[in-house]
Design brief:
Helix content is about 30%, strand content about 25%. By secondary structure, it is of the alpha+beta class.
Amino acid sequence: MIAFALHGGAGAKQGRDYSVEIANMRDIAEFARASLETGARAFDVVTEAVRQLEDSGLYVAGKGASPNMAGNYELDASLMNGADQTCGAVTALQGFANPVLVARAVMEHTPHVMLAGEGAALFAHEQGFDPIADEAEYFTRAGRFESNHPPGTLAHGTVGAVCLDRHGQLAAATSTAGVFGKLAGRVGDTPLIGAGTWADGQTAISCTGQGEYFIRVNASAQLAFRHRGGQGLAEAADATLQQIVDMGGEGGLIALNAQGQVITPFRSQGMKRAWFSGDGDIHSEAF
């Protein structure tokens, strides 16, 4: 059994045409299927899928980032390997294009889980990642099309992927530029293991939405622990997201389990996503 899902954020707005994003997500899902069918590991597949989402410039992550209130581009990412629950993360990373790759390097080349801000940028430089030469030219500000929330609310966007490989291993990865109009140094759920990202031997989850609420309920770990405790995957997700709604937040998530079940629930106007399980069709939707 193989299974895979990705999301391009729960900030999708009714009335907007997402055909370009849907086609891009489908292409990445097809890449994931081809990789998994030849024996690729889940952790490698989610890393590469999120890198492609970052590089597309279509989502509020990587190339699609918008600046914070100080005019700087601060990027967050995390990933987790369910086989041994190793993980890595960066937050408030400036000057580099692919935070998910830097997060993986943190996991593989340091004893730490997360590096932040200036330290994360110094580490990226030391690891040989190429800095962005011209940020004004590089970033597409994809989220400007989705930032029409009422004043004072947390307009948002994120990308992520979850995967089950033919070896029975699970993995998850998430990346974002954060909510629009965020204060310098703001940290949301995306780089926090257990809030925005989780993978263990039974479940893999990537979240998207108003991160402050996902942090308050420790959304991804809560869902995984509910499922481990006997709740169905969909039931566990519904209970977790309902807590966020009850607090006044919104968002969604993608999750799958070791049996290849995939769910993509959201509590917002829409969520860009694509998924498949086994040899079933690739599905791609925004609403």
